[in-house]
Specification:
191 residues; alpha/beta; Maf protein; 25% strand; globular; ITPase-like_fam; EC 3.6.1.66; hydrolase; metal-binding; dITP/XTP_pyrophosphatase
């Protein structure tokens, strides 16, 4: 089965590709010739995942899934949330985003946070949504060189290491994206 993942983020593609069964050929936006930037105009994580999946399915005709992820920090009333990728500006720079978040948390004792991923799958004229949430906390300094995004400052509950200190396979077992992807795979295996 050929399935498009509506992303050009090579880190996300690699993370999901290693989880999928060999019977599924994962295609990126680049693989199908989609070079335009798909607008993420929703004010919710769910909405943005749906927009991206619908865009590819309608314009290119492939079965497709898209994800959107947000880091939600309790004491900041859910920020950065849907704006996680561009928290510090439209340049979408991970270091700038982390620095802004650490600055905003500088005098806060409550550092509880959660990553939330929604995957929207369009296949066989149906749409399915899958949610993955992992709770944890934001530490005060960056640790680790693996991973991407906010991984160097996020420690999942029950662990002492950040996502950026974990191997990809370990992170995939417990991460928000891993949880949502396993739900996606369960459905694909029934088709």
């Amino acid at each position: 089965m050929k399935l498009v993942f509506a992303s050009n983020n090579q880190n996300k593609i690699a993370e999901i590709k290693q989880m999928l069964p060999k019977s599924i050929e994962l295609l990126s936006l680049e693989d199908i010739g989609c070079t335009e930037d798909i607008p993420e105009t929703s004010n919710t994580i769910e909405g943005n995942a749906i927009i991206k999946a619908n865009y590819v399915s309608e314009k290119y005709g492939y079965p497709c899934f898209a994800d959107d992820t947000g880091l939600e920090v309790e004491t900041l009333k859910g920020e950065p949330g849907v704006f996680s990728a561009r928290y510090a500006g439209e340049q979408k720079n991970a270091d700038d985003n982390m620095n802004k978040l650490l600055f905003n948390l500088r005098d806060k004792s409550n550092r509880k946070a959660q990553f939330k991923t929604i995957i929207a799958l369009n296949i066989n004229n149906d749409q399915h949504l899958f949610e993955g949430i992992i709770k944890g906390e934001i530490i005060s300094e960056k640790r680790g060189t693996k991973g991407f995004g906010y991984d160097p400052i996020f420690v999942p509950e029950g662990f002492s290491t950040t996502f950026a200190e974990m191997e990809m396979s370990e992170k995939a077992k417990l991460s928000h994206r891993g949880i949502a992807t396993r739900k996606l795979i369960s459905l694909l295996e029934t088709l």
